Amino acid sequence: MYRYVLKRLLLLIPVLLGVSMLVYCILDLAPGDAADILAPDDATLEEKEALREEMGLNRPVLIRYFEYMWNLLHGELGTSYLSPITVWDAFTQKAPNTLKLGLASVIFAVGLSLPLGIYAARHRGSWKDALSMILAILGLSMPNFWLGLLLMLLFALRLGWLPSGGADKGFLSLILPTFTIGTGMMATLTRTTRSSMLDVIRQDYLRTARAKGVNEEVVIKKHALKNALIPIITIIGTMLGGILGGATLTESVFSWPGVGRLIIDSLNGRDTPVVTGCIIMTTMFFSVVLLVVDLVYAFVDPRIKAQYSNKNKKKGGEKKDGEKAATA
Amino acid sequence: MAKKQQQPKLDANGERKQRSQAGEAWHRMKKDRGAMLGLVVVSIIILVALLANVLLDYDEDVIGMHTKERLQSPNAKHLLGTDEYGRDILFRILYGARYSLSVGLVAVAIALTIGVTLGAIAGYNGGAVEEVIMRFTDIFSSVPNMLMALVVVSALGQSMLNLMIAIGVTSVPQFVRITRATVLTVRNQEYVESARAIGLSTPKIIVSHILPNSLSPIIVQTTLRVASAIISASSLSFLGLGIPAPNPEWGSMLSGGRKFIRDYPYMTLYPGLAIMITVLSLNLLGDGLRDALDPKLKN
Questions:
Q1: How far is A111 from chain B (nearest CA, A)?
Q2: The pLDDT of residue A183
Q3: B212-224, pLDDT tens digit by residue?
Q4: Closest Cα of chain B to A283: distance in Å?
Q5: DSSP A5-65
Q6: Torsion sign, CA atoms A268, A270, A276, A277
Q7: Banded model confidence at residue B273, pLDDT cuts 50, 70, 90
Q8: How far apart are CA A165 and CA A168, in angstroms?
Q9: Confidence tier at B14 by pLDDT (50, 70, 90)
């Protein structure tokens, strides 16, 4: 198991280098650079060129990238072009806000979707099932920035119950953005929970349990849900992994001071180190969370746990895990 | 459940009626009310998009300013009201279908072409080629879609074509994965082996034997991706990185209406509703197609 974790972490290095190179080079295609943004409006071409020289922007992109990568390999994300702050500081200032929002949304989504999905599966084919599925597909089809605006209109502007933006009112500020992001997550998770429960509900061991006279609550909670959990955990894991990078629009609607807005502002300012750094951190977070999810499987499902312990004996198991990681 | 148990239809000789594979899928889909609703609405939206430039005068009805009629709430003359320049919101939404649909379709066509080609090559050849393609796919898909699209579109600049490219390119990995996976399952079938035995070239085998038999998941994925491409396009336009003003793209209409949300909420409400109806019907259609093409998956 440790070997597996180590291998996955080592595999992360080429992915992160690839991501950094991709983002760095794509950004370099953009017309204009940070010198254009920093220079005063009345700056002459010579002054801009001098500024470029000073910032090192006039060197070829590959040289700048290798220098960036060299620093990256030493754990340095560099400094922002536009302000004296380091990329690490800029990121860590904003990340807690985004993480807080993301976690709240996941909790909201899980809390609603699991009961709703189970409920739909238990009443399959009835109007209750149809209604739950209509709710889910509505949530999936709604652009979440639009939902955010509507919620803001109703609860902040009309009713005045909640703040319309910012993060300075503590829990109250969190409610609307959480609801906005959580609704989209809820839709996917409800559908997964329902179909996963349906797969299990037809199994013989459930019929056996019922025939033995086990009470329905226990059948659903202990026998069905436990066996339906793997696909549900996969989706929850993907959501958790995506929280750092997935809140961009909602953050922009609610002026939430998070990583998404930092990335947009930096993109507008052609601040390549900050954009690249934030995307590297987001990617790393995503990959690490997915790795943790893969490990959680082993705790939920003894069959998967057995695979890990067999792996040292059999070489074949390793390939299978690699494939699972690729599809996750 | 009761429906599934129905006796198959028998013809005069008491034999089961034969249908083609597509006919069978269509027959199953006809029973799915959600899918049929989706199909009808999508057809109407396509029709609107095709006819909008015939029925509406772009310069006059869509982007022409009529300051006397500015900021009118929905009324008999302007069914959905007018915006801050006096432009009719209904007209702009109808015309906007052209942008959303074409961005959605072209972006997915880009993703489909690149993704299916790479996925088929990876799945059929295996070995080092597969390894390189899949690792590259991993790198590309480990950046959240929205962020990648943001980076690409801000590097290329703001235009409709660049928006299509940005969304198309970020949707490639899903198509690579799904094509590779389905190709892997048909690669070792006997008919492929016999095609190889009679000496067909690899590209020919992939195009005429492997892809037709891997189509179902690709069709379903395409429908659902068009839906999400439309959301991505309007999201980027909402952030000011998509189709530039004064074009009536739904996302940029929403972003324009946002300034007036307190007093004129209809300006934000209707463009969003248009996005939702379009995406919803595409999703319903995609779900229905999946159930019809692959009944094994249906619960």
A1: 24
A2: 92
A3: 877 888 888 898 8
A4: 6
A5: HHHHHHHHHHHHHHHHHHHHHHHHHSSS-HHHHHS-TT--HHHHHHHHHHHTTTS-HHHHH
A6: negative
A7: very high
A8: 9
A9: low
Please tell me the distance in Å from B214's CA to the nearest CA on chain A. 18
Out of A29, A137, A283, name the one closest to residue B156 (CB). Answer: A29
Residues B83-98 have pLDDT tens digits of: 888 788 888 899 889 9
**Tokens read off for B84:** 């801050």
ipTM surpassing 0.95, yes or no? no
Q: Show the domains of chain A with their CATH numbers.
A: 97-274 (1.10.3720.10)
Q: Do A245 and B227 touch (CB under 8 A)?
A: no
**Whole-number pLDDT of residue B233:** 92
Whole-number percent of chain A with pLDDT over 90: 18
A154–B contact, CB cutoff 8 A = no
The whole-number average pLDDT for the span B234-245 is 87
Instruction: Give the Cβ contact number of residue A191 at 10 Å.
Output: 22
- Which of A126, A137, A146 is most worth mutating to test chain B (most B CB atoms within 10 A of its CB)? A146
Inter-chain residue contact A249 with B235, CB threshold 8 Å: yes
Q: B299, A18: Cβ pair inside 8 Å?
A: no
Res. B298 pLDDT band, cuts 50 70 90: low
Give the residue on A whose Cα is nearest the Cα of B144.
A245
Phi, psi of B82 (to 5 degrees): -130, 160
User: pTM for the complete prediction?
Assistant: 0.85
Instruction: Tell me if the bond preceding A84 is cis, omega within 30° of 0.
Output: no
Shortest Cα distance, chain B CAs vs residue A246, angstroms? 7
Q: pLDDT class for B9, splitting at 50, 70, 90? A: low
The answer to whether A37 faces chain B, any CB pair under 8 Å, is no
Interface test with B, best of A21, A149, A287 (most B CBs within 10 A): A149
Tokens of A201: 């509900």
Helix (H, G, I), strand (E, B) or coil at B9: coil
Tell me how far apart the alpha carbons of residues B274 and A286 are, in angstroms, rounded to a whole number: 33
In chain B, residues with a C-beta closer than 8 Å to the C-beta of A242 are 144
Q: Which two tokens stand for residue B146?
A: 């929205």
User: A300 in helix, strand or coil?
Assistant: helix
CA triple A6-A7-A12, angle to 5 deg: 95
Q: How close does chain A come to B230, measured CA to CA in Å?
A: 9
